[in-house]
Amino acid sequence: MELILFAMVSLVVIVALLASRLNDNSFPFPFDRKSAIFTPAEKNFQNLVEQAMGSDYRVLNRVKLSDILTIRNGVSSKASQAAAKNADKKYLDFVLCDRNSMKLLGAIDLVDTQGKGYKIKKDWFVSGALEAASIPHLRIKVKANYTVEEIRSCINTRLIGTPKPEPKMKGSVIPAPMVRVRSKNTAGVLTPAAARSQLEAMNKPKSARQIPAPNVAALPH
């Protein structure tokens, strides 16, 4: 009887220990599935960027800083380890690449000034690292009513570097390329020889003067 009681107590103790290990923070897989991968703001902005840039570009989400940067040659081992450790902890909301070559064109971070203030403060390490690597970095404030054209213009100007479109002509202003330069031999232009001839004629007596026929270039109609 005592043996059976001892076995039952031991079994209860073992079950209690196993249950405590399952609920303990040291459990190796304390995970659960998230309800959504992206926040509503991230999802909407990604759709806008993809619509704005078209099929020639690819938008990557939540890319680690260490995935797009490499340590330069000649840096000390201590500095390299510290920089790599910091870069591995940082990530970018969006990265824009060329679809065919996957060449990196720039990085985009969303700034939410409401709620929890997501990335409201500029991260000096991220900004400095991207600037050192000559990677354009764009921080865009979260807004509900962005248009596709606004996103396209902002990315073209700040990341890709596409020149701004020329302003439309107003009034009677004529663009410079449409103005034709007159040839040096255009009729009506007084040559040095003709100027000397007229000067000599003016110095002659009035009776000897001959008034030449006017040689005037035709005016444009």
Structural notes for this entry:
It is a single chain. By secondary structure, the protein is of the alpha+beta class. It has a four-stranded mixed beta sheet, with helices on both faces. Helix 5 links the parallel strand 3 and strand 4. The longest helix is centred in the first third of the chain and has 22 residues. The chain is elongated and about 155 Å long.
Query: What general outline do the C-alpha atoms trace?
Result: elongated
Low-confidence stretches: 167-184, 211-221
Number of helical runs?
7
Amount of helix: 25-40%
Structural class: alpha+beta
**Major beta sheet, specifics?**
4 strands, mixed
Report a brief summary of the structure.
The protein has 221 residues and is an alpha+beta fold. Helices cover 39% and strands 13% of the residues.
What attributes characterize this protein structure?
221 residues, alpha+beta, 4-stranded mixed beta sheet, 7 helices, 4 strands, 13% strand
Compile the SSE list and pairings.
Elements: H1 2-23, H2 40-53, E1 57-64, H3 65-68, H4 77-89, E2 91-98, E3 104-111, H5 124-132, E4 137-141, H6 148-160, H7 192-203
Parallel strand pairs: 3-4
Antiparallel strand pairs: 1-2, 2-3
Helix pairs in contact: 2-6
